[in-house]
Write the structure tokens for this entry.
Amino acid sequence: MIPIVTNGLEAVQRVPGVTSAAATNDAELTGDSHFSGFSVEGHKTTEDEKTDFEAPWITAGYFATLKQPLLVGREFAVADTHDAPKVAVVNLAFAKRFFGSAQNALGRMVSEGGDAPIPPDTTIVGVVGDTKHQNLRTDIGVAVYRPYVQIKHPTGMRIYARTTQSPEMVESAIRQNVHGMDPTLVVDDMRTMEDQVNLSAADERALALLAIGFSALAILLASVGLYGVLAYSTEQRTREIGVRLALGSQRSGVVLLVVREMFLIAAIAIVIALPSIVLLGRLFRSQLYGVTTSDPLTLAGAVLLAAVMVTLAAALPARRAASIEPMQALRTE
């Protein structure tokens, strides 16, 4: 399996426009995970402590290909072969949890096996930044990356390639090179990382569209309701408005009277709604991505939208109130 993966990577790297290529057995943003138990040099695990961490096997150049930042140390090299000393790269979450910082993690030892009495046999040679892995919502957590050529039982791998050309232009060349390496190999499920991100976010996007639809319907119903209430209130005050106009009130003053009534209702609603939104938002924290439960920009946008809705709902009743003729209004019962 390892020679096939190595040859496959070389075939992909020979494609014009491909600047780097690497592979892993734990693909990104596909909902999959590859966990394994580890023990850490100098760390005594407690009874309830979790020792199973994300443990992808990767090829050299993986972090550079996916632009995952290398904080300290080095990536895996060609010299990290099956016969060479075992090495690992951990993420920042691992380094902070067990050693306090990324720098302190370099040169320390770990071993696969969790609580099993296995002497540490793998040296940490680098620390990389934390990323999203299973999906866009959750971080990868504590992770230990190891070189694929040192795996005991090889598995299938997902190859990633970074190109200077559009993916569509290199896709056929990749298929041709891999097929030329071995006619029995089939390249399938090829997609860009942008497509993978969109696929990973499909459920969230559908939920967002559904929420937007219900929100728009709620705004429409609220606007109609506000308009109906204000129109009825204005109709009931026709005689009062006629008296005001007959006594010399300006029509602009009548408009202001109607609009002020509506904005008073809106202000009371906003004062009650904003704290309620913050409190209820905590119940839906798991459904939020990219914003907090009390995001000031979102709340300000909601207030602005409410103000626009109130203005539109009050516009027609206010216009009707301003067009009332005093004598006709005074005859109204």
